[in-house]
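Lab channel / #folding
Pinned by the channel admin:
"Please post every new chain as: sequence first, then the structure tokens as a reply. Keep commentary short and put observations after the output so the thread stays searchable."

First post following the new format, from NK:
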Amino acid sequence: MLLWIIGIYSLYILAKIYFSIMQIGYINVEKRRKPVLMPQGRYYVAGNYAVAKERLAILESFAEYLLFLGWVLGGFRWLQGVVGSEDTVVNAVLFLFGFFAVNWLVMLPFEIYGRFRIDQSFGFNKMTPRMFVVDTLKSILLFLILGGALFAALAWIVSRNENWWLWGFALLFAVALLANVIYPTIIAPIFNKFTPLPEGELRDEIEKMMQEAGLRSNGIFVMDASKRDSRLNAYFGGLGRAKRVVLFDTLLNKLSDKELLAVLGHELGHYKHGDIWKNVAMMGGFLFVAFYLFGHLPQGLYTEMGVVPTAGVTLATIFLLLPVLSFIYTPLMSMLSRHNEYEADRYGSEIGGRQNLISALLKLVSENKSFPKSDPIYSRFYHTHPPILERLEALGFDPEQVDMDAELPKEGIFEFLDRDEEK
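Reply from TO:
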């Protein structure tokens, strides 16, 4: 059985690397062709950024594979020897802490390189080493508290129930829902400062849009994202009464009010169409399948790994194999998500104005240095958002109608075009 597991995991890693190589080859060709949606220089830089991220992803895949082999070919046996083989809740929590600690330490250099080498060289990273260390320590503390409580509950279920996989799924699904509730109001403020959007015309317009969409939230906030990253974003976070509108300060600095309202209109489209709950249902289905499959692994697998199948080992095995199932699940999730994005664009163009949404998307792709083209297979497999060119075409925009080498004003691209025609 162990050879089968290794074979399946090997195919998974090879597929990831193959997709990345395809994407790198595609972008290296396209970035030298006529630019679209952004000036020539920025277009080329965006291509280089995408390639750099994919190259790092390949290295991460190799590290992930070595970690996997290390765990199943002796790592679990070594860790069980360190913490003991008693099937207790404390033993399971210690085993899982050790498992995640080793994985984190191995992958940490890639995170540091991605942020302080790649992101910084392309003008995104604003985080200082000190800030990174502080954030890391906060994350570790949260993991020890919240993760420890979750591990203890899961271990108790595994050691006390014959159908532990079903109850384990129910617990993890409930925790995932709870995380969505507490994240925007409790966890996110630990890392960022959230300031209520000042009263004024913009706030009034946002509240009006929310009222029309039937969305009630506990506030509209500006997040100090610029102290860590220069990219633009906005989101509706939370479930139930914990829902809140979050605007990155970088977004406020780059988009006009009309463009900002169109972007929020897109996000409201997700709420209006129930996309949040669709995603929750998809996540629930994934967790159910994962716990069912990995909860019925033959006992012989643990014997081949040289370990006693304690609660800690059983749960660590599930966490180790989850990425394989997630990879298989990805194309379906991506397909449904892309459909939802088109529908949200349609709603956003209706409530916020088609031209405003197009103008905002053009600024987002340029400011975030998002290369607008992608290998078709890679895109269909991974991308939760349709290629930006396809989104703009669906909105009726022809990229040939504007010279993207010109400096676009904050008020928007269509105001720029109208002003250029007047000349």
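NK: The two ends are 74 Å apart (CA to CA).
TO: also worth noting, The chain has one domain: 2-422.
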